[in-house]
């Protein structure tokens, strides 16, 4: 009886650990409110703020881009293509994680930022990547750091593609970029109302 109770207790403990692990990587419950996101994901504001301070990329813009790319799903991948309309085929690219970064672009980031251990499914690394990419866009494409519309076009098309204006014939992409821009503005308005408390919490947590 004693052994059985110990096994049950161990099984319960493992279940709790598994559930906790799942919660740690699950997307936020309210994707439309950046204050709610940062209240739920306790470390995310501090990590986003670090990226903002490092790269000069506004938090609201980086978060709006991440929302568009993955809806904050840590292991997001592009949907598979369809063969004959219904047979699952290969994925169109190796984009992965929170930022939906291509493997080649991620490796460029790792080298440039000296962050060789960075992972695309880690929020801190992903938000830092977006900050780095937007900073590069600002320099190479002459885009303002708070211009979410053009920053997203550069994020999607690449810096060379943006400078060649490859997006001009892509009405669907320009529509998506407008959505990202609107979300960035909404996130910024929300952040203005709660950032003081988030900064206090970041400072408090930094003591420990």
Provide the gyration radius in Å: 20 Å
**Amino-to-carboxy terminus distance:** 43 Å
- Residue fraction in strands: under 5%
Number of helices: 8
* Helix-strand topology string: HHHHEEHHHH
Approximate helicity band: 55-70%
CATH fold-type name: Lysozyme
- The largest beta-sheet arranges its strands as 1-2
Question: Would you mind describing this structure in some detail?
Answer:
It comes from Microbulbifer okhotskensis. InterPro entries: Lysozyme-like_dom_sf, SLT_4. Keywords: Signal. The chain has about 210 residues and is mainly alpha-helical. Helices cover about 65% and strands about 0% of the residues. The protein has one domain: Lysozyme. It has a two-stranded antiparallel ribbon. α7 crosses α8. It is globular and about 45 Å long. The N terminus is likely disordered.
Strands, helices and their partners?
Blueprint: H1 2-25, H2 34-40, H3 44-55, H4 59-70, E1 82-83, E2 87-88, H5 103-113, H6 123-140, H7 148-163, H8 171-207
Antiparallel strand pairs: 1-2
Helix pairs in contact: 2-8, 3-6, 4-6, 4-8, 6-7, 7-8
Summarize the structure.
This protein is an all-alpha fold and 208 residues long. It has helices spanning 2-25, 34-40, 44-55, 59-70, 103-113, 123-140, 148-163, 171-207; strands at 82-83, 87-88. It has a single domain, classed as Lysozyme.
Keywords:
2% strand; Lysozyme; Transglycosylase SLT domain-containing protein; 208 residues; 66% helix; two-stranded antiparallel ribbon; 2 strands; signal; mainly alpha; Lysozyme-like_dom_sf; SLT_4; 8 helices
């Amino acid at each position: 009886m004693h052994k059985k109770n110990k096994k049950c207790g161990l099984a319960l403990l493992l279940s709790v650990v598994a559930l906790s692990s799942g919660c740690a990587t699950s997307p936020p419950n309210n994707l439309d409110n950046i204050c709610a996101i940062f209240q739920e994901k306790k470390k995310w504001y501090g990590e986003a703020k670090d990226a903002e301070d490092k790269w000069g990329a506004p938090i609201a813009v980086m978060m709006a881009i991440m929302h568009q790319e993955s809806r904050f799903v840590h292991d997001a991948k592009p949907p598979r293509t369809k063969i004959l309309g219904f047979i699952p085929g290969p994925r169109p690219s190796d984009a992965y994680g929170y930022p939906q970064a291509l493997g080649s672009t991620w490796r460029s980031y790792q080298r440039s930022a000296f962050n060789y251990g960075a992972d695309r499914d880690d929020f801190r690394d992903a938000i830092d990547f977006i900050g780095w990419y937007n900073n590069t866009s600002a320099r190479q494409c002459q885009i303002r750091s708070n211009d979410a519309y053009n920053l997203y076009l550069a994020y999607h098309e690449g810096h060379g593609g943006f400078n060649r204006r490859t997006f001009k014939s892509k009405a669907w992409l320009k529509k998506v970029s407008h959505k990202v821009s609107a979300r960035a503005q909404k996130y910024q308005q929300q952040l203005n109302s709660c950032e003081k408390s988030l900064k206090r919490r970041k400072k408090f947590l930094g003591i420990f």
